[in-house]
Amino acid sequence: MAPHGLGGNATADRTFVVTGADSGLGRAVAERLNGSVITCGIGNELDVRADLPTQVGRRSLIADVSRLSNGRIDGIVAAAGIGVVRPSTVSLNHFGTIAVLNGLRDCLSASDSAAAAIVSSSGSRFSDARSQTGK
User: At 51, which CATH number?
Assistant: First the structure.
């Protein structure tokens, strides 16, 4: 968990969670937030390493974030996702996101002004799925 630099002094004492922080938009957000940022993803250089398409990974992330945050988070950016059409896309992009948000609800409730942002992947677009399968 490391302090970062966007958002001014108003967020300096706040704790944020970013999923998908090992690449793309998740990494960019994590690098720019001011306050303590708990980075989550599948990479080795993160605060929490968890594979969100699986229930075990989801439970692990929730337990680790709850412990690292001392039971209070002020914001979450759920940016973990994949953009290819396969069964794990729904397991991660939809079910993983919902499970993490539900699992961290008590930590968010402990904040006086919690916020959550969800990033969606283009991999869940039905028109892309049909064009890739030829149907």
Answer: 3.40.50.720
